């Protein structure tokens, strides 16, 4: 008799299952629009040149060793990360009421923050956008939250934000509920609120005493400008909110598998910092004890050196410009071919992903019949498009819709 005999098979994680299917497909023109990772115009993964430079410098630095980092990670890295998010003139930094904790990429930062809120502050209800990144729900429930709720976000009819529904759902939320907000480049829709809409959102969050937990997985990657992509978080800080923000260096540094991230914490006053830090320390100690150093050292090396920082910004521009170019190309092709429907949303959306408007059946048809791999929600990663495959993808979309 096995202890495991009655265990039910869990459901596959869609995006990873799709990637495996893609790898096993030997169709020559197959296209991978599922993976959320940057690719060059040759369809190749890209290690940022500035990361190569930093890695060489680190490899030659004999003073570095492999001993444990502190439980809350590499402090110089966290400090620079929080500064990059909040901006040099942030009131929270000037008043010493913000700090960072190095965590395992964006996911780990969300998880540590969520577990703190659930187990130390007794929070039970969280809200995520409908739709959202598929992992938010699992991360927060695994962290101890009891109830997952959605707020309206995407209006499929107008292919844009349902701001009225969004605000109404926040108004109906119970006091103290945690609201997950995408700092920029909403995944999967590529559709962000305008600044005026963010002001409305902030005012309901304030009035209803909700807690804002930002997810910042794309700073710099969305617009190509680090400050512009951090505007929303900075606005909330200026408005006096206490908040958490999970930062990921997967996309903007291309450090996907190094699991490099930071949980930025902004409080009302410095008085609360020691207690909050001590409780987060216990959470991390019981979860993975301390984080790995390699990615954090790379980011620290770049953020602390003006010349490398400029190089990094130019690497980010390369990535964001290619994505913006691919949006234009895809829209042009779809319009040129006369694919049914309107395609302005493709260029109006921002960030790595686009919500095409294809439904589940149509998306599956794209995979089965055309070997164009995309999620059943109709989400495509713009990074998988290249000058050589964009026409094929547009033709496939047209065939699917006609
Ligand atoms: N949040 C969002 C919205 C994301 O798109 C991602 C990456 N797909 C993450 C968080 C976390 O990614 P990672 O853990 O690799 O940093």
Q: How does this model look, in words?
A:
- The chain contains 16 helices and 13 strands.
- The protein is an alpha/beta fold.
- The longest helix has 32 residues, at 306-337.
- Helix 8 (195-207) links the parallel strand 7 and strand 8.
- The chain is globular and about 60 Å long.
- It has helices at residues 14-24, 49-59, 75-86, 91-94, 105-120, 136-142, 163-171, 195-207, 226-229, 231-238, 273-287, 294-303, 306-337, 344-348, 360-370, 390-401; strands at residues 31-32, 98-104, 125-130, 147-152, 154-155, 160-161, 178-182, 211-216, 243-248, 260-266, 353-355, 372-373, 379-381.
- The chain has a seven-stranded mixed β-sheet with strand order 2-10-9-8-7-3-4, with helices on both faces.
- Bound molecules: 4'-deoxy-4'-aminopyridoxal-5'-phosphate.
- 4'-deoxy-4'-aminopyridoxal-5'-phosphate (PMP) binds next to helix 5.
* Biggest sheet character: 7 strands, mixed
Strand residue content: 5-15%
Element string (H = helix, E = strand): HEHHHEHEHEEEHEHEHHEEHHHHEHEEH
Roughly what percent helix? Answer: 40-55%
Small-molecule binders here are: 4'-deoxy-4'-aminopyridoxal-5'-phosphate
Low-confidence stretches: none
How many strand segments? 13
The overall pLDDT, averaged over residues, is 97
Using the CA coordinates, give the radius of gyration.
21 Å
Which overall shape is indicated by the principal axes computed on the Cα atoms? globular
Strand order of the main beta sheet, please? 2-10-9-8-7-3-4
Ends distance: 55 Å
Report the structural category. Answer: alpha/beta
So how many helices? 16
